[in-house]
Every structure is written in C-alpha cells, then in structure tokens.
Amino acid sequence: MAMLSFDTRSLDNGAVTVEAVLPPSDGVWLDEDILRPIGEGLRVTGRLSAAGAGRYYFSGHLSGATQQECRRCLVPVERDVTADVHVLFAEAGGEDDDDPDVFPLEGAQGDVIDLRPAVREQWLLEVPPFLECRPDCKGLCPKCGADLNAGACTCAPEIDPRWDALRKTRNASE
After folding, report:
1. What is the pLDDT of residue 146?
2. Which of 63, 74, 87, 93 is 20 to 30 Å apart from 135, CA to CA?
3. Angle at CA of residue 69, ends 63 and 70, nearest 5°
4. Strands (E), 41-159
C-alpha cells in the first residue's frame, strides 16, 4: 500500500489515486484515541486533486473495524465502520485559516499534503461512541454485577422510597 503523504507538485499533472492503510500503531493516533481502528488498520481509498490555487481536495472512503466494550454488559464488541470522506486542504495564510473544516498544508513552503490528520479526524467522527452487543442486551445487575443476559440474579428487587406515597394511595383504594 502507498503512503498518505503527497508532494503538491505530484498533482501538477492531474489527480492521484490514494490507496493506503493507516495502521493503529501510526503516530497520528493519540494516546487518548480509544476508538482507533483494530487489526490491520484503517483502509483509505480515494482521489486527491488540485482545487484551485493553493487548494487541494480529497474525496474518498474509509473502512476499518473498531472494538469497544458493550455499554450495558461490558463484553467486547467489534464493529465494522465505513465512511465517505471529503476534505479540503489549503495553504496557510489564506482565507481558510480560521475554518476548522480546512486542513493546512505542511512543509516549509506548504508543499506537502498529509492525509493522516484528516483521516484520523474523520474516523473519530464516524465511529459510534457507544456499542451494544445486541439491541436487547439486559446489562449487568447494579447491585451484584451479574450478567443479566445469562439469567436473573438473586438480588431482591430494590423499592424506591420516593414512590411510597403513591403506593399508599394505590393500596388504600383497593
């Protein structure tokens, strides 16, 4: 697979095809990125082209897998994630400097397009923040921690004292 960094001069003769894998071990991922891809990494495909003076456009597709704990029962859950990506890169010092959706060019003269930060950001926006092992997951007992998917626990049901007045009214009418 090819890399994800391009010299802007390589685009003088037309668009370039991007086909690369961004591994989970790449330095673009931060320690706090718990939603980074697993396995071989994040597959990036698309097309990078000039979009005017000092501006470049990447249109492509991301695909990879992520693993998290089920938000209810804490078992490991793996999900495939795919997304279409459209990113604009521009030279620093222009009208796009304050636009958070435009990524700056790198290099001494702004002559390098590094797709990795934009790909990382797009991935983190697409990965669901919470996964469930299944839609009807019953989770864990809040008292004993038993997995309620495996069956009921032996804890007595907890009665909320805030409803006592309503219970008394209901019992009086019976």
Report:
1. 93
2. 63
3. 100
4. 42-50, 55-69, 76-90, 102-104, 112-114
127 & 173 share domain: no
Number of compact structural domains in the chain: 2
Q: List the structure tokens of 80.
A: 């495939």
123, 155: one domain? no
> Residue 163 has what DSSP assignment?
G
64: its two tokens: 């990879």
Whether 47 contacts 84, CB under 8 Å? no
C-alpha distances (whole Å) from 152 to each of 45, 73, 74, 75 are 47, 14, 17, 18
Give tens-digit pLDDT for 35-48. 889 999 999 999 99
Q: Is 103 exposed, middle or buried (0-12, 13-18, 19+ CB in 10 A)?
A: buried
Q: Are residues 165 and 83 in the same domain?
A: no
Total count of residues recorded for the chain: 174
Pairing of strands 76-90, 102-104: parallel
Where would I find the beta strands (DSSP E) of the chain?
5-7, 16-22, 42-50, 55-69, 76-90, 102-104, 112-114
* 127: amino acid identity, one letter: V
